[in-house]
């Protein structure tokens, strides 16, 4: 019996030590690039150059407002249960091929079955590595952001 108690105590001590070690790893704040030292006149001139001539206007409707309006079909300012389920009903109707109001396994898995039969080029009932590789989802290319190189900080010649 004492072995179980000692084992449980050891396990609790190990969990406590893990929590202490896990929480002790604080990430330091990222270092910011050094800011140039500017004279007061230069600072004012630079601040005026950085301000845009016009202020951008906010869009008339937010994304959430647009989404709400897509669901609110009768435009009464409320989304009823029926309005909310319209999208699900359309998706169900696309899957229900024979229109009986019930989904069989074959109807539900139709897209997957089609994908398998298309990939199984030799019609062997099994996919080889090359055939399986054709079933990989097509990934959208991420847009690359080209940031300009950092501008060299002006040197203060007085120091």
From TrEMBL:
<dbReference type="Pfam" id="PF13202">
    <property type="entry name" value="EF-hand_5"/>
</dbReference>
<protein>
    <submittedName>
        <fullName>EF hand</fullName>
    </submittedName>
</protein>
<dbReference type="GO" id="GO:0005509">
    <property type="term" value="F:calcium ion binding"/>
</dbReference>
<dbReference type="InterPro" id="IPR011992">
    <property type="entry name" value="EF-hand-dom_pair"/>
</dbReference>
<feature type="region of interest" description="Disordered">
    <location>
        <begin position="117"/>
        <end position="159"/>
    </location>
</feature>
<dbReference type="InterPro" id="IPR002048">
    <property type="entry name" value="EF_hand_dom"/>
</dbReference>
<feature type="domain" description="EF-hand">
    <location>
        <begin position="83"/>
        <end position="118"/>
    </location>
</feature>
<dbReference type="InterPro" id="IPR018247">
    <property type="entry name" value="EF_Hand_1_Ca_BS"/>
</dbReference>
């Amino acid at each position: 019996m004492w072995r179980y108690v000692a084992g449980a105590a050891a396990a609790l001590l190990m969990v406590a030590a893990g929590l202490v070690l896990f929480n002790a790893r604080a990430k330091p704040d990222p270092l910011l690039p050094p800011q140039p030292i500017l004279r007061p006149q230069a600072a004012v001139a630079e601040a005026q150059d950085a301000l845009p001539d016009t202020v951008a206007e906010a869009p008339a409707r937010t994304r959430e407002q647009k989404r709400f309006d897509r669901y609110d079909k009768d435009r009464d300012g409320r989304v009823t249960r029926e309005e909310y389920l319209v999208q699900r009903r359309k998706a169900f109707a696309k899957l229900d091929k024979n229109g009986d109001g019930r989904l069989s396994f074959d109807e539900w898995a139709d897209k997957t079955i089609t994908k398998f039969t298309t990939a199984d080029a030799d019609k062997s009932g099994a996919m080889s590595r090359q055939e399986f590789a054709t079933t990989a989802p097509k990934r959208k290319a991420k847009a690359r952001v080209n940031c300009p190189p950092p501008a060299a900080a002006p040197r203060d010649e007085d120091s």
